[in-house]
UniProtKB/TrEMBL annotation:
Positions of the ATP phosphoribosyltransferase catalytic domain: 51-204
Coiled coil residues, start to end: none
Swiss-Prot/TrEMBL keywords: Amino-acid biosynthesis, ATP-binding, Cytoplasm, Glycosyltransferase, Histidine biosynthesis, Nucleotide-binding, Transferase
Protein name: ATP phosphoribosyltransferase
Main location as per UniProt: cytoplasm
Enzyme kind, highest EC tier: transferase
Biological role: Catalyzes the condensation of ATP and 5-phosphoribose 1-diphosphate to form N'-(5'-phosphoribosyl)-ATP (PR-ATP). Has a crucial role in the pathway because the rate of histidine biosynthesis seems to be controlled primarily by regulation of HisG enzymatic activity.
């Protein structure tokens, strides 16, 4: 049995067509079932639904043989023990800095003053501001980051941006793009050795579907 870890939402929805290209179908809809283990039409492949930030942990410790996870999650979690054979080029977005429209970001970045930054992505944010020589007070949040500058909790946020609609709806402006993000296939190295043939076949399925899209 091969176990593939996916998270509900964009990653699940954008992974389905890659599997479908090889005739692989997930037999239940995660939006309609409370089950966390979903069968597929392949008797030796099942999908487990985990939180996006837990995918690397499941794969690292063998709770799943492979998984699909965002580059942002991989950077924050660390990729220790994970083989990353493919950039699947799905769930594409970017990590950006955003502030209130009336906040003078350029001034704040040059004055040697401290910037209050709220984010879920503390590792990415810390590296970025350190590379600019800017001191930051980091405020770790787990969601609704957009609220932080609006309530005075922070001067800036570091968050994922796709269309920019969420920022716009909250009167925030994107002032810096830190990095482009897409989802990657991650593989447990022991599983790759122990279940070589079916694992290679599945990695191949993802490779061919990704190439076909390019
Ligand atoms: P948007 O309004 O299209 O710019 O999307 C921004 C919102 O969606 C933010 O709350 C992000 O955290 C979230 N988001 C955007 N892209 C992704 C992604 N690839 N994976 C997870 N969350 C995302």
């Amino acid at each position: 049995m091969i176990t593939l870890a996916l998270s509900k939402g964009r990653i699940f929805e954008e992974t389905l067509p890659l599997l479908a290209a090889a005739g692989i179908e997930v037999l239940e809809d995660p939006e309609k079932t409370r089950k966390l283990i979903l069968p597929t039409n392949q008797p030796d492949l099942r999908v487990v639904l985990v939180r996006a930030t837990d995918v690397p942990t499941y794969v690292q410790y063998g709770g799943a043989d492979l998984g699909v996870t965002g580059k942002d999650t991989l950077i924050e979690h660390g990729a220790e023990g994970l083989y990353q054979p493919l950039d699947l080029q799905i769930a594409q977005c970017r990590v950006s800095v955003a502030v209130r429209a009336d906040f003078d970001y350029a001034h704040a970045m040059t004055q040697g003053s401290r910037l209050k930054v709220a984010t879920k992505y503390t590792a990415i944010a810390r590296d970025f501001f350190a590379s600019k020589g800017v001191h930051v007070d980091m405020i770790k949040l787990y969601g609704s980051m957009e609220l932080a500058p609006l309530t005075g909790l922070a001067d800036a946020i570091v968050d994922l941006v796709s269309t920019g609609n969420t920022l716009k709806a909250n009167q925030l402006v994107e002032v810096e793009r830190i990095m482009d993000i897409s989802s990657h296939l991650v593989v447990n190295q022991a599983a790759l050795k122990l279940k070589q043939a079916p694992m290679r076949r599945l990695i191949d399925v993802f490779a061919r579907a990704t190439q076909a899209k390019a």
